Amino acid sequence: xxxxxxxxxxxxxxxxxxxxxxxxxxxxxxxxxxxxxxxxxxxxxxxxxxxxxxxxxxxxxxxxxxxxxxxxxxxxxxxxxxxxxxxxxxxxxxxxxxxxxxxxxxxxxxxxxxxxxxxxxxxxxxxxxxxxxxxxxxxxxxxxxxxxxxxxxxxxxxxxxxxxxxxxxxxxxxxxxxxxxxxxxxxxxxxxxxxxxxxxxxxxxxxxxxxxxxxxxxxxxxxxxxxxxxxxxxxxxxxxxxxxxxxxxxxxxxxxxxxxxxxxxxxxxxxxxxxxxxxxxxxxxxxxxxxxxxxxxxxxxxxxxxxxxxxxxxxxxxxxxxxxxxxxxxxxxxxxxxxxxxxxxxxxxxxxxxxxxxxxxxxxxxxxxxxxxxxxxxxxxxxxxxxxxxxxxxxxxxxxxxxxxxxxxxxxxxxxxxxxxxxxxxxxxxxxxxxxxxxxxxxxxxxxxxxxxxxxxxxxxxxxxxxxxxxxxxxxxxxxxxxxxxxxxxxxxxxxxxxxxxxxxxxxxxxxxxxxxxxxxxxxxxxxxxxxxxxxxxxxxxxxxxxxxxxxxxxxxxxxxx
Length: 562
Ligand SMILES: Cc1cc2nc3c(=O)[nH]c(=O)nc-3n(C[C@H](O)[C@H](O)[C@H](O)COP(=O)(O)OP(=O)(O)OC[C@H]3O[C@@H](n4cnc5c(N)ncnc54)[C@H](O)[C@@H]3O)c2cc1C
Description:
The protein has 562 residues and is α/β, with parallel strands linked by helices. The protein has 16 helices and 20 strands. Helix 1 packs parallel to helix 11 (380-398). It starts with a strand and ends in a 12-residue tail after the last strand. 52% of the residues are buried. Residues 15-21, 39-42, 47-50, 54-58, 152-153, 168, 187-189, 208-210, 212-213, 216, 246, 347, 370-372, 380-381, 384 line the site of flavin-adenine dinucleotide.
């Protein structure tokens, strides 16, 4: 199978037309005449984390809050190691982003005074089933934005250390597309599918994080030598068992407590109730033989039950269908909870590109926004939008006389050869699916997956690294028989790179700062004296070089200096 080559040029290339990518494109279009191309591996109408919709905007500055108090909350919940400057700058844009969504047509729930209805302290309720089609429709109306749906971007195009575009292939026809741009934004979301998931075989892609976000943006950056931060701060969601539906809707919506099989409320038995402690205490109760654990919903009113049915239909329909199918509901039975496998996701925790105050990465002319950008946990939908706006405005202000630069034909041919060689491979003993499962098993058993209660130690991590290296050495020999298999191949390759960086970060932080997310059994205590630092890394010639960086304060204008 051969590829045709298509070449495109634009002012700004946005890789990933999800939440952050679409919003950034809209901001550029509304504030300049710049031409934008959005390239997405799916169809932006229903792609990424928002594909199925959400029922709340989880980052909002409500009446009793300020951007400053939001920073303090995120800092407290993340044990102090966050980029305060980044959290602060996006906090200032949260409410504006929410307002913009309303203007675009997203229905917000309002009280008798016309105020948004709060779900939690920093969360407001929306009818968000159509949030993604609404964003896509707004994009559609802008003549300066072109959308390439079903184009999987594989790598950046780089000349003299500067990002000059990206290359990918169509999932609908045998075409490789090289897109040259003056500036590029990476908005490909986080990474799922790294660890063995909760559900086996046919249901293995029923996971909390979008199974289609496989960390391409991280991997492209890693391969290109971008500095990455805080991969060791993994995110593990506490979820409704089997359906993997969110628990916040119940915990915050009807203030349900967490109870064990004996009916004891267990959260208060442990330290402070941060996000990760809700998970950790559940894992501990199970290890002590007190599981299964539940959200205590038995006895809630019919009205509350009806609200929960509706809320889940908005964003995790499987949960409502499970209740209806079983002729039950949360008022008659408590809801069982469990932790998912770990993910790398900068919108919930802090893993991702190391960016400056404008969200520019350490690779010149490349920005990173949303879940793929590191340093600022708890950004959620509105935080991703706010970051999209910050990057867009910086690009408008700095693009100036930046010129399009192209690679030589020979360099491009090499990249095309690499993509197409998978169609010609005949010698692999393994399918890409087998390599994927081997990777997930290694990570589960040796790098702190579900089966080890998320714990790991140095010896295990070294075994994990060795096995991941082995998989990386054979994955290039895999055969792809169609474009879909080629996509799967690149998705696994990307995740193997992420595994390598993740393992190095887990080993580097010699303390335990966020139980479950990062629980190093060799160093079981938090060590503020030595580890109030960011663990960053740069990948070069197959080696992950760890760089420790000092904390950046709230009012600092952070620029890259080295
Ligand atoms: C299950 C779930 C529930 C959530 N619930 C809430 C909630 O209730 N409230 C809230 O505020 N936040 C919620 N969040 C968080 C929020 O949805 C995310 O933080 C946010 O949507 C991430 O935006 P993003 O633009 O970074 O990624 P996404 O919106 O996921 O966009 C990434 C895009 O990149 C594309 N892409 C990926 N790889 C490639 C590639 N190689 N080439 C081209 N395109 C590519 C994808 O197709 C996708 O369109 C939830 C997240 C999840 C997963």
